[in-house]
Amino acid sequence: MTYLPLRCAVAIALVSACLPFPCFAQSPPGPGVGYTTTPMLPGGKWRVHDQHRPRPTVVTPGASVGLPPSDATVLFDGQSLDAWKKSGTDSEKAPWVIRDGAMEVVPNSGTLESKESFGDMQLHIEWATPEKVEGNSQGRGNSGVIIMGRYEIQVLDSYNNDTYADGQAASIYGQFPPQVNVTNPPGQWNVYDIIFEAPRFEGDKLVKPARSTVIHNGVLVQNAREHIGPMNHQDVSPYTPHPSTGPIVLQDHGNPTRFKNIWVRSLREEVDPWIVMPGASDASLPGKGKKVVLVSGDEEYRSEEALPMLAKILSEQHGFDCVVLFAINPDTQTVDPNYSSNIPGLHHLDDADAMIMATRFRALPDWQMAHFEKFVSEGKPLASLRTSTHPFNFSGQKTSYQNWSWNSQDWPGGFGQQIIGETWHSHHGVHNGEATRGVINEDAKSDPILNGVKDVFGPSDVYGVVHLPSTAKVLLLGQVVKGMKPTDPPVEGDKNSPMMPLAWTKDYQYDNGPKGKVFCTTMGAAVDFLNEDLRRLIVNATYWMTGLEDKIPEQASVQVSENYKPSYFGFRDAKFFSSKKIRPVDLIPK
Ligand code: MG
User: Fold this and answer.
1) Which residue, among 253, 216, 245, 232, has the nearest Cα to 96 in the 3D structure?
2) Which of 45, 159, 324, 368 is most buried (most C-beta within 10 Å)?
């Protein structure tokens, strides 16, 4: 079957400027587009023509082949050397010159390196040796493209110029000659398209060597060739461990060689932008066979750090199959909680037994929202942490889910108030000034969700809760504390009299479907979960959601890795996530 991708090039180009709008960087899977019952492809991840398989990101090609496509990093466009510096120095100025739109080596001024670092890449670079032929062998138009500052693809005037084979143009210098010599005459432009895979190390050990494919003037001359080690002259160097990215280095070998049209595309690892954590193999663990999907995506309370930690506890210590989803910038496929219109992997909700959500003000496209709707239409159980009382915000946007907005009038308070029991109302305690202690509601103290839960405390403040229906069962009340320390006393007066609900359970019903159950706590900053009993509350609630109420342990195991060092809550600017390039897998506490 054929499929016309939704081309949204303008939206992609504006992607960073249009955060509040749903930009379909990936074309939406829709009804009839793809299949859900075809055989699994070998490898077991996707079905043949899988409806849910993410669509490739739309990239606008260069105006002609060889010009940078829209997702390339341009290192030289004929105008400026700003992307370059003198190698091995902090100097901001590159000592070469620009002439006729090309950068030219100023002999003996120094080798250049890109200011930005790259690992696996597609590199396009054009070069020309001096028209006036001087010298011979390695002395004629010598330069080099030295990837990661270590792995050299030789640049040389190899037109009617004899030199040793592993040192001519397009050789992996000192190791492998090119398959053929297609070098243009001196003064004319040559084109390299290089696909480079960085070596991989585990500790001190090399587990995969560097590999280069080189196309020279349109001709394949190095075919997935494994480097023996870093470049050396008159010797062989072994691999030594180095970072996963490094600069692109252009060599000053004393000849005025020229370069132009340099661009690079970082190659994506083909990994899903979510985390799958199968339950531990011990068949006696109560959670075996139950699937829990944890949905992060809030700008402030670092749910992208908290949920992988909770999933690790639920899977390793209780046997639940867990999937953790994230707000993902589709351009980089990395985690960006400020990117409010994309959470890939929501199709995992379709066969989930329970959901734990910690989203805030998301504006997801309809095709992603449809998975939430299916979930609640079937009355499946869900838990809401902290900001997930106001999980969606579609203000001013065209969507079928306008009513789900936190401030909806038509369906008052939207998804939060209608399903979870409250929408965003207020900070009741002073934000970042008055911490929260969880006080057990005497009327609910025998509820098994409170098994082993005695001392809940966290630095996030008590939320104002005013819409909770009387049918909800309040488990914990939120005591506002006078400061931020567990030893600080309760605030006196009205704030704690009465106390706000802090954790509750209730039923919900969506669109006359079957009844479902909800657990909610308005605590849930990543730092709150340093508190053992708060972690236990969530684990117990997961048992309750998945029909394992009578198996809730008296004192559920909630051991957390000492490497769980959550960031304190607060907003982060766009630059933070675009520069950090956090992959979901990086967020699993080791
Ligand atoms: Mg060289």
Assistant:
1) 253
2) 324
Cα(68) to centroid(ligand 1), Å? 25
Distance CA 359, CA 363 (A): 10
Q: What is the pLDDT of residues 213-242, one digit of tens each?
A: 999 999 999 999 999 999 999 999 999 999
Q: For the segment 441-478, what is each residue's pLDDT rounded down to a tens digit?
A: 999 999 999 999 999 999 999 999 999 999 999 999 99
Q: How far is CA 494 from the centre of its chain?
A: 43
CA 222 to ligand 1 center in whole angstroms: 17
pLDDT in tens, 530-560: 999 999 999 999 999 999 999 999 999 999 9
**Pairwise CA distance, residues 148 & 47, whole Å:** 38
Report the C-alpha gap between 445 and 288 in whole angstroms.
28
H-helix or E-strand spanning residue 415: helix 414-415
Paired tokens of 492: 């006196």
Centre of ligand 1 to C-alpha 231, Å, is 10
Q: Which amino acid is at 272?
A: D
% of the chain exceeding 90 in pLDDT: 83
End-to-end Cα, the chain, rounded Å: 43
Closest-CA residue to 412 (of 469, 352, 451) = 469
